[in-house]
Amino acid sequence: MIFISFLSVTLAILFSGFLLLRGIFGARMPLSSLERLVMSFTLGIGSLDFSMIALGKAGILLSARNINIAIFAVPLVAVLLRLAYDRFFPSQWKPAIRTNAKPDNVRFSPTERKLFLLLIGLTLFLKTIFLLGTGLPTATDLGHHMYWSKVISDTGRLPDYSKSEIVDTTDGHTALSEPTPISDFIIGEHLPFAAIAKISGVSFFSAFPVSFLLLVNIFSIIALFLLTIRFAALLFPKTGISAVSVGLAVLFFAGPLFALSSPEAKFVSGGVIGNLFGNLIIPLAILAFFRAFVEEDSRFLGLGILLTLVLAYTHHLSTFVLAFILFGIALSLVAVSFRNIPGLFARIGKLFLSPYVILTILFVCAFFFLVAKPTYIETQALGTVVGTPSKTTRTGLSFAQTSGSAGTARMAIGLVALLIASSLRSVRRSPAFPFLLGWSGALLIMALRPGWVFLNIPSNRIGTYLSFPFSILAGLFLASFPILFRNPAKHPSGVFLPGNIFLFASLVLFSFSAWDGSQDNQSSLPSAGKAQEALEVFHASRYLADRSKPSDLLLKDHNYLSADSWMKLFFMRDYAYPLSRGYFKRYEDETNPREQCTLRMISVPNLADGRACFDDLHVNLIAVNPAYDSAQFEKSRDFSRIYAGTTIQIYERNR
Amino acid sequence: MSATAKHPEKPASPQLKPKKRTSGEAISVFVVLVLFVVASGVLFSNVDRNIDPNIDKNWWTLAFESRETENSDFTVENHSSTTRFTYTVTRDNAVLKTGVISIAKGALRTVYPALPASPGRTTVSVVGDDGSKKDIYRER
Fold first, then answer.
1. CB-nearest partner of A135 from B50, B61, B64
2. Whether residue B74 sits in one domain with residue B110
């Protein structure tokens, strides 16, 4: 029943997004069925987010009933407005919809449909096997995010993203500060999970967070497939290559190959929620902007702006990356249109000067200024990501590291594709080329030379965004290989490969891709799950939570306890409760000095430094793994052991 | 034959017909959703199994029932294949109580030793029939 409830809410979100799409485009949507599916899901999440934020800011309780209303209210209003507009608005006042759409591009042949389902099925299969191996929801990031979702679900209020920290006082002691704002969490990462939990009653300690993220991940791969089809239709207009076949080649690179790496299944199990939503919304936004530009349909521009707004309230880093990508695309468009830049600006200007876009921009401004700003705007966190890189981890990746992030095969083949595309006049003239060039170029610069664009973000985070454009480029190369080098009438490369050499080259290309991708998959398969260890931690947490007093202060270890970040969901006192002894190397990082009390209270509780921390902070409970951290407590008369499990023990400081 | 007579038309060969491109997308949407439902169902079932403390698990815990320092009641919660546990309660190494308790897998048992009030370290040691041992203690 819980599973059915979870599915029902997910499908409700999907349906509400479909209604919103219907409101934007009317009955005759210029979208393929798969585009409708993925767009509906994303818009449904966006609509849910904005509705819940508005309700929360208005002081209305986020009860199950109110959330149900929130899911459907805005889309239904949009549909009704649309119906009224279609039926009653004088046609002479309606703006003309110019569209050059060629929907035939996305029609599947039976073989292509079977291949698509085979690739998607294989991708889902591999990811599910990986996720089965991880056992229970134990990932640190996922635990942090689910805490905030549980705050919303339990209290019915929007969360106050803040936490208490251990700080040094002026008199040489340490103390717990009052809660200070955190800018790393964005509300859109938590609202969908809170809504599902509230309505369906499903526990956070279930498969629902990972299942939902799996759906987001699969849809992001389908979004890439759909974007490729639109690109390919204009890159290979007269070659006889089916745009869907090109999409299938990209699906091969983006789906079963590298299925388990970051930012794929690893991000799903790890709960890197913002990145996953970013990977869904970025290709959809590019798709919307691309279709707006090519088909001169302002509705798509409005849709792209709306998707960008959803992203802005979901993940700050992805929003930043999208902004850079769009800037790169704009530069590329200017570069390829240098002979007619006024014409380019006029074309884009006409799109902006349409009621759809103006209304969308008005909505964006109204929501941003009158309802709520994203937390990273309110805490002025943007200033920390712009500037000269401040640490060695932010000065850019090496080329080898970048290739590793994107997938070596994808990177290598993708770069060759980019070079060949840049050299072919017929491809350069295609409107898809500046989009691909701008997208991949912007990310390469951000990853390899962040200082050039004054970017101060961990470079390995940027590297994970490279997989998508390079999957497209690699897939384009794979699909066009016969045309480039074999078709005598249409080999624009100017190089004709004899039969045996062509066959050998094709086999090498395919084998290299398959080997690299499956190697990556093999190295990502998890070892035996730690379900029992995690269960013991949950059991100990429940034991303490049932017997806790307001004066209690618990310190736990992050190095050797499984699923420790999920302990906070049992107490729901503060994001930083229980206190945590973090990774040892963080205490030695001279570029980012931090308090030492959490280290000392577990590692050296009997020395003067450790005792001073206990006296200052009044920590009275310690949770550790006895295999690593029991001796120092056992030989002290200051501590009682009140709970003993196999992989976790709890000590209480004697009064 | 007249110059204007037309040659009889040959029937189109099936091989020359253009490949039919149907909109199989609606079916694809349905199948994608079905595949997700199946994958999700498998994940739910897997987590339900993993979060069950008794299925494929072998652990037990020992803990004081109360946070009060004067209270020495303790609970053994069993999720292992062992069902007999021998407990010993000592205070500063003097044995005050011993006993054997049987706890089925998935059950818990609380023991109320009712100890005399006196200062010292009260230690509860429990040993399972499989040799596994745990102890807890508190200062009074």
1. B50
2. yes
Say yes or no: B74 and B104 in one domain. yes
Average pLDDT over residues A355-382: 84
Q: Which domain holds residue B26?
A: 19-51
CB contact under 8 A, B35 and A33: no
A258 neighbors A492 (Cβ within 8 angstroms): no
ipTM of the complex: 0.88
The encoded tokens of residue B73 equal: 């009641």
Q: Find tokens 């409830």 and name the residue.
A: A5
pLDDT for A338: 83
CB contact under 8 A, B61 and A104: no
Q: Give the bridge partners for A192, in sequence order.
A: none
Give CA–CA dist A356/A334, Å, rounded. Answer: 25
Q: Are A422 and A437 in contact (CB under 8 A)?
A: yes
Same domain, B114 and B64: yes
Residues composing chain B: 140
Residue type, A369: F
Crossing angle for the helix pair A2-25 and B25-51, to the nearest 10 degrees = 150
- Tokens of residue B35, six digits: 């595949």
User: Is pLDDT of A576 > 60?
Assistant: yes
3-class secondary-structure state, position A262: coil
Task: Kindly list the residues from chain A whose CB atom is less than 8 angstroms away from the CB atom of residue B20.
Answer: 109-110
**Number of structural domains chain B divides into:** 2
Over residues A265-320, the pLDDT tens digits come to 677 777 789 999 999 999 999 999 999 999 989 999 999 999 999 999 999 889 98
- Same domain? For B65 and B33 the reply is no
* Cβ(A176)–Cβ(A44) below 8 Å: no
